[in-house]
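Sorry, any thoughts here?
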Amino acid sequence: MGKKITIIIIAFVLFLISIIFKFDNIWINNVLYIISYLLVGLEVLKKALKNILKGKVFDENFLMSIATIGAFIIGQIPEAVAVMLFYQIGEFFQDYAVNKSKKSISSLMNIRPDYANLFVKNSIKKVRPDEVKIGDIIVIKPGEKIPLDGSIIEGSSSLDTKALTGETIPRDVKVSDVVLSGCINLNGLLKIKVTKKFEESTVSKILDLVENSSSKKSKSENFITKFSRYYTPIVVIIAVVIAVLMPLITNQNFNKWIYRALSFLVVSCPCALVMSIPLSFFAGIGAASKMGILIKGSNYLEDLSKVDKIVFDKTGTLTKGIFSVQKIKSINISEEELLKFAAYCENYSTHPIALAIKKSYNYSINEDKIKNLKEIPGYGIKANIDDHVVLVGNYKLMDKNNIKYKLHNEIGTILNIAIDGKYEGYILISDELKEDAKQVILKLKQNGIKKTVMLTGDFKDIGIDIAKKLKIDEVYTDLLPQEKVEKIEELLHNKIGESKVAFVGDGINDAPVLALSDIGIAMGGIGCDSAIEASDIVIMTDELKKIVNAIDLSHKTNRIVKENIVFAITVKIVVLIFSAFGISTMWEAVFADVGVSIITVINALRILKVSKNLKIERKV
């Protein structure tokens, strides 16, 4: 950038000297013009020649080269230099804009760790992160980045997670807490047991996601690419017609019509569209990343504005996913014994319900007593505990095994327990709604979402109760994983026109639905491999309001893209017509071309400031 601006300044000074002083010796003027032209134009001429040799003839380099060389041939040397000079000034502004938008996601690139402090035989060895193995111990000093995912085995500290989550408030961590690569250790010394290889760590997956986000182009970008492919040859043919046929038809001077044709070529350059549209989406993805929202491609950012139905998973998405035991009802055994059998069956599970059971039990579990444990998706768990056949799960599990039971009218998740074929009672577990869930649903409806849907494997009473509290339009309960997929397929089949269906899940067990929907949004995706891989948009925290932020950002980005397309094409058409009829000179043509480019680029950069203005009211 520094070298380019220096060359432009020198060329501009030489150009001004030639115009202002107008030396008596015409050769001095021409030499100054030629030097100025070559300083800014040689690079363009080389690119045009290389592209022609590769078969890529019709691009902006070709248009600028033909226009300026033609101007030299007909003696319009100042115009030729002005065209190339101002074209390069426009390119400089575009390069500046790209660099500015790249800086918006540079904080994410800074999460890449340079080294890891490997703890070996009471000493620290500095190694590359990819040399560390699962189970190794690493030491994180204050101010250092955490290079790999792991669990704290010694120490406590506060972590700066801003680069991952967009949140400025530090997160306090202690022994046994899971920590993720990319966070910065703020104060205490930490010893961490590594749980993932570097290539499988959170930081690697996020970097890969961001670096490849530009590979998935939006329809607008694809349209501009196709538009340029046909538009540029057409304007070149029209310019040839203006330069060759019009003098013969009108019986006028060739130089006059060639000048008009060259002006026509200058203004026809499509660089304003070719540059500003991808830049708009790139800036949008950058603005989202600053908020802790990772968007895998500009196609998803564009499609997000077309969403009119949003489907939510319940647990961990609309609710906190923090369960606690509210009630234990036993029949033939004690409540303590009933809880024990449930805890033993749930011992190997990491599901929030299982964690609530184990937390309530609060005794050590003798794993030797657990035999033949089998998890039945959508139903529950079957295992042999102390030579007893134990079933722990929902009513469907009881029905499947012909266990007689009584239905219970409780609001919450009911975990039924049967031992040796006999129903022995149930445990009631409840979850809490997220504080902003109601406000977010209302805000989404205000922002144009026509229908909200909730899918859950939980019981009908619980699902209906939550849907009423949140004012969700439709709710489907008692769903098995494959039934959730069927519901999404049904919604996708019934959508109208270009409308899109988005699914929002916690990313733990929703991978099939996230992948199937038009746009899969993973909540709390930080550290969850399935979320990052299966979804199209990853919200790094569990804040529902960021869905509103993402949709808002999508609408603003698409509005700016449309503004740029309409503005650029309108100005181009008007000045093209003026140039063809000799109303616009080459000076006006070059100012129109460069001006349009600069205005559209500045307009695209407005997206980078959007993130500061996206807020959701705490009270509705």
